Amino acid sequence: MVVGEGDTIHVVDDSHLRVQTFTSSGEYVRSFRIPGIPGSFALLAGGNFMLHRKLTGQGDDDGYLFYMVDPAGEVLARFGKPTRELIEKDQWLASPSNNGGFWTASMWKYEFIHRTLVDSIDLTVTRDVSWFPPDGKWDDEMYVTVPPPANLVHMWEDDLGRLWTYTAIPDEEWELASEQRQGMPEWATNTFDIMIEVIDLREGRLIAQHRHDRWVGPVCGSNLMYTVVRAESGDTRVHVFRPTLMGTLD
What we know:
Blueprint: E1 2-3, E2 9-13, E3 18-22, E4 28-33, E5 38-43, E6 49-53, E7 66-69, E8 75-79, E9 92-96, E10 102-106, E11 111-115, E12 123-126, E13 151-157, E14 162-170, H1 185-191, E15 192-200, E16 205-212, E17 217-218, E18 225-230, E19 236-241
Antiparallel strand pairs: 1-2, 2-3, 3-4, 5-6, 6-7, 7-8, 9-10, 10-11, 11-12, 13-14, 14-15, 15-16, 17-18, 18-19
């Protein structure tokens, strides 16, 4: 889901390839079709949507990775060609920026690309960090005998022009846990940590970094994040929180 002006709710339906819009009270407003299964979906400042189309390997390799559509669903622009490598490597994120443009980033590379127009790149932000290996190697033993690869989970630009990034990295004490079901809270906790970084775009420097010992994900493409935990009763609970900047790096 993506929350728009006046708390309008845009619900992305990847089963029927459509977006439905509702008021904050749940009243239906409209719907429109989208060109493929969404891997990432962002509401831009001008009211248009940026969609990353997830490839399926079913004859769609000649398509585009990104589509910009208006509130009625009409395609305004498309860009980005598939790499024709593993389908898993063509997974991207999209996020709005303050100036009406947008950010895109591959899930498998610590590099953030800002565009105001779809046919030009205004800014590329990248960092060489040990916890996000640049080679992007894939191993058949991932999640079996070797840890999973680092992957970008979320990014967003705050009102002060700072880029917040969230990357899933292998837990420092990762080990194969065959008894734990993939996707369950215990599995996620024992498999991933989240590295959070805040980058000052005006000064071009890292100003904050924190390694969180639980996997967290974004809420409706906003600055809110959530994690899933198991209560003592055995029920699973969703904890939603708002990360804040309380100190900066020297």
